[in-house]
Amino acid sequence: MTLTKEAPREIAGRPVTLAHAAIALVVLALAVAAVTTDAFLTQTNLTNLLKQMVTTGLLAYGMLVVILTGGIDLSVGSVVAFAGILTAGLSSGLPLPVAMLVGIASGVLFGLVNGALVSRFELAPFVVTLAALTTIRGLAFVYSDVPIAPEDESFFWLGSAMLGPIPLTTVIMLAVFLAGGVFLSRTPAGRSIVAIGGNAETVRLAGISVRKHVLLAYTISGFCAGLAGVILASRVGIAQPSVGVAFELDAIAACVIGGASLAGGKGSTLATLGGVLVLVLINNLLNLYNVQSFWQQVLKGLIIIAVILVHRASRRRT
Amino acid sequence: MTVPVPLLELKDVHKAYAGVEVLHGVDLTADRGEVIGVVGANGAGKSTLIKILAGAEPMSSGQLRVDGEPVTLANPHDAHQRGIRTVYQELTLAPQLTVTENLLLGRFPRRHGLIDWRAAHEQAGTLLGEIGFGAINPRKIAGRLSVARQQMVEIAKALVVEPRVLVLDEPSAVLAGSDLDALFALVRRLQDRGVLVVYISHRLVEVLDLATQIVVMKDGVIIATTTPANTDEDELIRLMAGRRLEQIYPDRRPGTEKPALSVESLTRKGEFADIDLTVHKGEIVGLFGLVGSGRTELAHCLFGATRPDSGGIAVDGTPRAFKTPQDAIAAGLALVTEDRKGSGIVPGLTVRENIALTTLHATTRAGLVDTTAQRRDVETMIERLDIRPAHCATMPVVRLSGGNQQKAVLAKWLLKQPRVLILDEPTRGVDMATRVSIYRMIDDLARAGVAVLLISSDLTEVLGATDRVLVMREGRIAGGLRSEGATEDQVLAYSIGRAA
């Protein structure tokens, strides 16, 4: 299975090094953690870890698609909050599956609006999604300025169900990455999105609609954020309008750690998943070592810089 | 008495990229007041040589001497310190800034610590005037100038501090008419002032005209050093290509009487007006015009990239209104743009993905790209157009030489099997051997019934490779003539409004 931007067996050089740098770091971190603490390899910790990576993972995939077009989606953290609180609120009156679908649909809708503003009116993605970040956050508070905790037990099911040793939500996330990898590497739409980030004018003159594909990219990001919001609310068991602040930054960080270029046209699905693992592991390990949370932020920042320097060095060599 | 040392000396210069050697020991000696013409096919090593002189790439081994003294050029700044300035083919201007800002960046005249704009514009204007580019207004935004004028600003930028060595890479590729004359005059003036000019060009006539010494490169070595007095165009072509090219342009056989592309009083305000033209099936029609005459704008409009204000387009007799390039492609049109880097290739992708771009949505199986079919199609094209290296399908497209990149762009459109092919400056910056194969290919397509509109500012090409020529001037068709028997002067006369 090749989930990278260009099939690795075809280009021995670049994409493989991208993925490898991120994944090597994950393995290293895992090894260090497993050897040095008893707490890491416990069932509880590993299950937690798998659940924790779902939100960042879903957001990161959506973010990757947008970043590949040369854009950015800063609104995903707010969409997480809105989709979660909408689902929780509606679940008291509607059947739960319907409430959840509406929650996800709200994410799709926000993505469509972002995409339309970027592609149709040619506004800067940063500005559009920055405005969306504050607007959607506001809407979440307008809907409910207090947390909503549904009493129905079934609300927690999605976030706590296990498929054997693996949480259901982790399986869902991996399925998104698998389908998403195939989408980017093998479908005409996916290849068009990658090409648009490389040179939009060439793509337009090749008879491919740039607008349509940019719209699609933001819609995918909105869908991922909506799904992440519904899953997070179910896992925590309570939906808060204030949840998800700065989640977009982790998603961007995961893409960048995975070697994606913020200029667009370059990035890999598999390596982004590696980037997600790196981020989640950093948090987990630093918690296990009882490192103060402020220092965790500092270390996370430094590690991101370090990984990017590794990428740069590996690219120079080829 | 000491023996006079030459200004610039290259000794046994080698260059390898990732273990693959592309320059195999280049020796070159040049002195003040010389014009060194460098010619060679795609991939001959000219660009690599330029990069080494510019300090943009370090050499793998060998020696570079300036005034007899060995120097190391680790970066472009080092080269500037030594008085070596390079003007690349690609434009590097900051498009949002004025000409003045582009020229004086980093050395603005100041008053009370602030930039003295009046003095700056004056200084820029004086510089442009002195080098014979007075037609350029320094207060204009660089990006709004025509490509030709931007190229001239690039050259002016290299002359802000007079260099000792000026390297010009295809400086004339986008110039025509009086702009071209201004460039030649400038080169001669610099030569008189003792500047060493290294002049790289595919236009052999120019090189023969300007150079004091001609250096022919092939496969990473200099295979001949000669002077204009001792050689001619035919010999240079033979040396570059390694074989004698009896004929550059194929014999044309007239096209049919069936119109494939008909355009009637097409107008787009500010760009072109009242354009009437017909290209028949199997016919090659040249469209000549100086930069700024509206030819590129017309091509974009014909292709649905912009919309006309009035007038009509018909393909195979059916009236069409293209809203997007998709519509035009669906009707059987294809456009190879003049700006390869800006709208021809997607730099991050492989050769295969670039070639497959137009057929991405056509080669699918169960919703997924059928990579087997794609690979097969692309390999066929690489072979048919002789894109080199032969196993380049999985290489990033930017690794190819300019001529081969252009072939890849052509391949992208040939895969689509167009009925009307619009080529905008398809041989710009392309060496003679590749040109010949492009002309052959165009001829083959026409013989197969494709209607070809060949837009060019190269007089020889526009007459040699076509059946008829239309001349554009200031957004209008100024005249038309049969290519056979027509002279370059006739075409030029139409283009500058002096036709009888």
UniProtKB/TrEMBL annotation, chain A:
Membrane topology: Multi-pass membrane protein
A Pfam family matched in the record: BPD_transp_2
Molecular function GO labels: transmembrane transporter activity
Keywords for the protein's UniProt record, in alphabetical order: Cell inner membrane, Cell membrane, Membrane, Transmembrane, Transmembrane helix, Transport
UniProt xrefs under InterPro entries: ABC_transp_permease
GO cellular component: plasma membrane
Major subcellular site: membrane
Subcellular locations according to the entry: Cell membrane
Bilayer-crossing regions: 18-37, 58-86, 98-117, 124-143, 155-184, 214-233, 245-263, 270-288, 294-313
UniProt entry tagged with the keyword Disulfide bond: no
Protein name as catalogued: Ribose transport system permease protein
Organism whose genome encodes this protein: Asanoa ishikariensis
Lineage of source species: Bacteria, Bacillati, Actinomycetota, Actinomycetes, Micromonosporales
TrEMBL record, chain B:
SUPFAM superfamilies associated with the record: P-loop containing nucleoside triphosphate hydrolases
Record carries keyword rRNA processing: no
SMART domains reported in the protein's UniProt record: AAA
Keyword annotations of the record: ATP-binding, Nucleotide-binding, Repeat, Transport
PROSITE patterns, sorted: ABC_TRANSPORTER_1 (PS00211), ABC_TRANSPORTER_2 (PS50893)
A Pfam family of this chain: ABC_tran
UniProt GO MF annotations: ATP binding; ATP hydrolysis activity
Chain ranges of the ABC transporter domain: 8-244, 243-499
Name the UniProt record assigns to this protein: Monosaccharide ABC transporter ATP-binding protein, CUT2 family
Provenance organism: Asanoa ishikariensis
